[in-house]
Amino acid sequence: MAAGFSGSGGLVVVPLLVFYLSCSSQPPFVSGQESQQDDAVSLLKRASDMIKVKQYTDAHRLLSAAIEANPNLSEAYSQRASVLRHLCRFEESEKNYKKFLELKPGTSSMEKELSQLLQAQSALDSAYNYFESGDFSKALDYIDKIVLVFSPGCLRAKILKVKLLLALKDYSSAISETGYILKQDEDNLEALLLRGRAYYYLSDHDVATRHFQKGLRLDPEHSELKKAYFGLKNLLKKTKSAEDNAAMGKLRLAVEDFKAALAMDPSHSAYNVHLHLGLCKVLVQLGRGKDAIKSCTDALEIDGELVEALVQRGEAKLITEDWEGAVEDLKIAAQKSPQDMSIREALLRAEKSLKLSKRKDWYKILGVPRTASVAEIKRAYKKLALQWHPDKNVDNREAAEAQFREIAAAYEVLGDEEKRTRYDRGEDVDDMGMGMGGGGFNPFAGGGQQFTFHFEGGFPGGGFPGGGFPGGFEFNF
Predict the structure, then answer these.
(1) pTM
(2) Residue 452 pLDDT level (bands cut at 50, 70, 90)
(3) pLDDT at position 288
């Protein structure tokens, strides 16, 4: 018996068992084996709670402790097998399923889970193989429809999924997936790298830089993070150099810088579209129309709605005298941006150039330069009129008449100072002798200015009806 004190100060007798119970949390007469069993069950319960909130690593630690406390606790093996399967630690998981089936053979639910494990393992291997071969969509199917269904906590599968999304240019989804990974582990270097790349390819370079920098603070020697960070830094530096040179009028240097920037990462479409456009604008300024067309076309292949690229390509086509192509590009640009008056003005210039390209070149017909004097134009006209007079070309009279009409029409415009000035300005002079039809000038018709020709022996049939050449001068053969 043990002694104690009563509340009134008297000595009282307390039974030994009651005293033991009051001083010890350990139940009386409990064996060590029973104590371990209770500990194992408690650990198992706590592990189950961890699994419910997807804290697989903590759950695995608790389950391992439960098995150490009670190596025959079958439920701990089944749960640890499931946790390891979730984490795609497939070989360890398989051992735990088999251990459970040793303890409880023929359990169909465990046999099914073991089968799922093997499917997930095979699917992950297949996904890697398809990734390596470039079949990204099929690899993603294996990850989404098998691996992450049976092993939802598999970090390797999640990282591979992000790589596949980047390869498929689904950058927004890649950002979402890496967000889930970083929520669980904010210092995961691979997730930081891949998330930074996704922002990079969306051309959100500031956010990309922050991800690369965070990763490098955690591991300054991480080769892929260093490559990504300094690659982006050099790209921005080269772009700035190109833009600065263009602004200062150093156009040839700007061309070289734009080309160098484009060569750094040809797959960076969201950014390269602006580099192509910048290069196109500089090439237009240099008058290199053909090269400019290619650069603007490259930009439009990335973004068909880029109005400025259409405008610049239209300007480039004007340089190469592709009048119809210029009008087509500028017309589309004007439709997309109807309020932009500069585009309207460019379109009007292109339409005028197209119209001028379709009219006859009277200078070329007379064989004189645009700077020819009035006297030079008259001499050229006399010479060609005599050369192509139908009566001097009896063997090919029809062709001669057609050529003679052209020559006469050219002189009708260029021999008149007012008409020539209007023609040189690009104005319509169709009603002043062009076309030779529908009321136009006809050297074989009567009326108008009269000319006298003296030919030895005369023209057969009495010469031209109505009087002959225009121009008010006389000459002899």
Answers:
(1) 0.70
(2) very low
(3) 97
Mean pLDDT value across residues 402-413: 90
CATH number, domain with residue 320:
1.25.40.10
Q: Evaluate whether 198 touches 175 at the Cβ level (below 8 Å).
A: yes
What pLDDT, on the 0 to 100 scale, is given for residue 443?
53
Closest CA to 187 of 218, 224, 156: 218
Do 308 and 353 have their domain in common? yes
Question: Do both 382 and 354 map to the same domain?
Answer: no
Q: Where do we find the tokens 């390869």?
A: 167
Residue 370 near residue 424 (C-beta atoms within 8 A): yes
Specify the amino acid at residue 342.
S
Sort strands 11-14 and 2-5 into parallel, antiparallel or unpaired.
antiparallel
* Residue 220 within a domain: no
Instruction: Compute the C-alpha angle 254/276/346, nearest 5°.
Output: 95
What is the token pair recorded at 96?
Answer: 């735990």
**Mean pLDDT, rounded, of the chain:** 85
Q: Please state, in angstroms and rounded to a whole number, the distance separating the CA atoms of residues 53 and 255.
A: 57
Would residue 177 count as lying in a domain?
no
Quick one: 161 exposed, middle or buried, by C-beta within 10 A (0-12, 13-18, 19+)?
buried
Percent residues over pLDDT 90 in the chain: 68
In this prediction, residue 237 carries a pLDDT of: 98
Paired sense of beta strands 453-454 and 2-5, if any:
unpaired
Backbone angles phi, psi at 468, to 5 degrees: 105, -140
Helix (H) or strand (E) holding 236: helix 223-247
Domain that holds residue 406: 362-476
